[in-house]
Amino acid sequence: MAAAEEKEEEAALPPQKRFYRQRAHSNPLADHTLCYPSRPQDMDWASLFPSFFPPEAPPGTPPARVEFADVGCGYGGLLVALSELFPRSLALGLELRGKVAAFTRARIRALQAAQPGRFGNVACVRGNAMKHLPHFFLRGQLSKLFFLFPDPHFKRTKHKWRIISPAMLAEYGFVLRPGGLVYTVTDVPELHQWMLQHFGEHPLFEPLPPGQLAADPLLPLLPAVTEEGQRARRAGRPPSTAVFRRRPDPPVL
Amino acid sequence: SDESLFVYDCSSAEKQQDGKGTDKGSDDILAFAFSPSGGYFALTDDSKRLILFQTKPSWECLSVRFVNRRCTSLVITAAEDKIFVADKSGDVYSYSITEPKADGKLELGHVSLLMDVALSADDQYILTADRDEKIRVSLTKAPYSIVSYCMGHREFVSKILVIPNCPDLLLSASGDSTLRLWQYKSGEEVHCCQLSTICGPQAAKPDQKYTVSRITYCCQGGYVAILCDSIPTVYIFQLDATAQQLLYKQQISLKHKGWDIAFEEMGDLWILQEDKEAPLLMYRACDGQWKAVTDDKGLQKMSEYIQDNWTVFEGFVGAGSYYSHLYKASFDNMDEYLQRKEKRLQQQKKKKQDLQHGSSGQAKKKMKTEEPSL
Ligand SMILES: C[S@@+](CC[C@H](N)C(=O)[O-])C[C@H]1O[C@@H](n2cnc3c(N)ncnc32)[C@H](O)[C@@H]1O
């Protein structure tokens, strides 16, 4: 840990990526020493979003709840954009790589310090979305779930590391409320096909009708707001976006 | 009734023709289950065979099929039309009973090793327990639809049991040394029993783990008996269904390692232990206390059967713990990194406050010299 990074924290300066570099891939199937709540209700949400948990809130007010999740949020570009577009909605970024998550937290802190009263609705935790979603979120809690430039894991043997898989889709269906939306963006055509296929085949999801896509203000933003999106643009790799809607639950027979 | 013993030798059954010849398994049986009526019996073994038997009017092997991965647990529906098989890669496959040769169908998957699978008494819900801390409840007819997660265990979930005469209640056990009761459809935990406080005083080691390896339940009286990994004791509880609690009743100390336990319908408790001289024990409730029965004809007959076939059991004598490698291990130092970082932030906050209140800023300097850099 470098002294420069400490200085940065102390002054809540915008963090510099060079202090937070980490290998590109962490194995999502391995045991990590991660901190996660045993159950969603055990999570100290107030410490992540203090301005949404005022001590003087009248008793009986339902506690604020995270509504958007950014899976593999990386350096946090989407969280910053969401904060400005939806200032009343809480968004949580989940990032597996510890140093990258630490960077994003520092970035949010710096923005909060520079513009008091803003950016209080977004936060980032280190977590493994392939294992911990039900630790963080209750059934049907989320209305939007984002997968921007997920790791492609090209090798066949690594396909089980892919964040989109039949097993994971059931879990995404669990945390999303019926009508909730999944957004995916990737610059890897093979992965785009993979995601279209798996969401397309899953009984809990349907592609959003094109007519309804046009009105969504997020759509033009998504390919450009994150670090990975900017990298893809610089490299001339066109991103593909897809949106899927959570269908109603099947009847209990 | 037919007094003869049915013996089926897995080592003489057909094995998978595997071109590569790799990954050959032994004939060890990894999991088995009866159907709720007792009319069917299925087992899976280390050679990845799934073998189905009918038991009435007499025992007969109906089919030998092959599963994709080694299995950890299986369950047969009350309708007796399907077997659900849970495996080490986290998947559950179903196999038809009515078409005993048909291939399996993938039903659901966890991103973890599965340790147990159970069905509600009416077959409507399928419950799966994994090596992380999760119990998942899904619709059996639409298993992609997750009804709830029962969250709260801190280690792998070793056993789950839907209480047959309280169809909304689930009993679970875990490497975290607890037994828990759940309203499984909502995922709400209604009772947590710390085994170390109940079984603790007798334990030799102070950090003894109570990982339940077997659970058996008796509807008559609502008795629950458990066996813990590497502890030669059977613990008996009674379920208070109205209060949704487990009441500790009694323990039975064994002279040898316990291998398995089972309640009979009327409440007799069978114990299989690692001892050729007395492989089977039987306990009977008498005025609320369980006492050993020695003069039972059935016990004598079964003990002889086991002794006569001891070669089958011999291989497991002295076997190590099945669970020791399943406790969560950590392999990176991120925790430490974050803890230190958090500490630094706290220090900085304190320093700011101290400065505001006019005290010295020594603390921060000291922190720096004491901390090695990453
Ligand atoms: C290619 S990056 C994209 C980051 C960001 N969404 C962007 O567009 O810039 C993928 C990120 O997902 C993270 N990740 C991979 N698997 C994950 C998991 N199971 N849970 C949480 N994050 C994960 C990786 O650490 C990495 O930072």
Automatic annotation (TrEMBL), chain A:
<feature type="region of interest" description="Disordered">
    <location>
        <begin position="228"/>
        <end position="253"/>
    </location>
</feature>
<comment type="function">
    <text>Catalyzes the formation of N(7)-methylguanine at position 46 (m7G46) in tRNA.</text>
</comment>
<feature type="compositionally biased region" description="Acidic residues">
    <location>
        <begin position="1"/>
        <end position="11"/>
    </location>
</feature>
<feature type="binding site">
    <location>
        <position position="72"/>
    </location>
    <ligand>
        <name>S-adenosyl-L-methionine</name>
    </ligand>
</feature>
<dbReference type="GO" id="GO:0008176">
    <property type="term" value="F:tRNA (guanine(46)-N7)-methyltransferase activity"/>
</dbReference>
<feature type="binding site">
    <location>
        <begin position="95"/>
        <end position="96"/>
    </location>
    <ligand>
        <name>S-adenosyl-L-methionine</name>
    </ligand>
</feature>
<dbReference type="GO" id="GO:0000049">
    <property type="term" value="F:tRNA binding"/>
</dbReference>
<dbReference type="InterPro" id="IPR025763">
    <property type="entry name" value="Trm8_euk"/>
</dbReference>
<keyword id="KW-0694">RNA-binding</keyword>
<keyword id="KW-0949">S-adenosyl-L-methionine</keyword>
<dbReference type="Pfam" id="PF02390">
    <property type="entry name" value="Methyltransf_4"/>
</dbReference>
<feature type="active site">
    <location>
        <position position="151"/>
    </location>
</feature>
<comment type="subunit">
    <text>Forms a complex with WDR4.</text>
</comment>
<comment type="pathway">
    <text>tRNA modification; N(7)-methylguanine-tRNA biosynthesis.</text>
</comment>
<comment type="similarity">
    <text>Belongs to the class I-like SAM-binding methyltransferase superfamily. TrmB family.</text>
</comment>
<dbReference type="InterPro" id="IPR003358">
    <property type="entry name" value="tRNA_(Gua-N-7)_MeTrfase_Trmb"/>
</dbReference>
<protein>
    <recommendedName>
        <fullName>tRNA (guanine-N(7)-)-methyltransferase</fullName>
        <ecNumber>2.1.1.33</ecNumber>
    </recommendedName>
</protein>
<feature type="region of interest" description="Disordered">
    <location>
        <begin position="1"/>
        <end position="25"/>
    </location>
</feature>
<dbReference type="InterPro" id="IPR029063">
    <property type="entry name" value="SAM-dependent_MTases_sf"/>
</dbReference>
<keyword id="KW-0820">tRNA-binding</keyword>
<feature type="binding site">
    <location>
        <begin position="226"/>
        <end position="228"/>
    </location>
    <ligand>
        <name>S-adenosyl-L-methionine</name>
    </ligand>
</feature>
<keyword id="KW-0539">Nucleus</keyword>
From TrEMBL, chain B:
<dbReference type="InterPro" id="IPR001680">
    <property type="entry name" value="WD40_rpt"/>
</dbReference>
<comment type="pathway">
    <text>tRNA modification; N(7)-methylguanine-tRNA biosynthesis.</text>
</comment>
<feature type="compositionally biased region" description="Basic residues">
    <location>
        <begin position="343"/>
        <end position="352"/>
    </location>
</feature>
<protein>
    <submittedName>
        <fullName>WD repeat domain 4</fullName>
    </submittedName>
</protein>
<dbReference type="GO" id="GO:0106004">
    <property type="term" value="P:tRNA (guanine-N7)-methylation"/>
</dbReference>
<keyword id="KW-0853">WD repeat</keyword>
<keyword id="KW-0007">Acetylation</keyword>
<dbReference type="Pfam" id="PF00400">
    <property type="entry name" value="WD40"/>
</dbReference>
<dbReference type="InterPro" id="IPR036322">
    <property type="entry name" value="WD40_repeat_dom_sf"/>
</dbReference>
<comment type="similarity">
    <text>Belongs to the WD repeat TRM82 family.</text>
</comment>
<dbReference type="GO" id="GO:0005634">
    <property type="term" value="C:nucleus"/>
</dbReference>
<dbReference type="InterPro" id="IPR015943">
    <property type="entry name" value="WD40/YVTN_repeat-like_dom_sf"/>
</dbReference>
<keyword id="KW-0677">Repeat</keyword>
<keyword id="KW-0539">Nucleus</keyword>
<dbReference type="GO" id="GO:0005829">
    <property type="term" value="C:cytosol"/>
</dbReference>
<dbReference type="GO" id="GO:0006974">
    <property type="term" value="P:DNA damage response"/>
</dbReference>
<feature type="region of interest" description="Disordered">
    <location>
        <begin position="343"/>
        <end position="374"/>
    </location>
</feature>
<dbReference type="InterPro" id="IPR028884">
    <property type="entry name" value="Trm82"/>
</dbReference>
<dbReference type="GO" id="GO:0043527">
    <property type="term" value="C:tRNA methyltransferase complex"/>
</dbReference>
<keyword id="KW-0227">DNA damage</keyword>
<comment type="function">
    <text>Required for the formation of N(7)-methylguanine at position 46 (m7G46) in tRNA. In the complex, it is required to stabilize and induce conformational changes of the catalytic subunit.</text>
</comment>
<keyword id="KW-0819">tRNA processing</keyword>
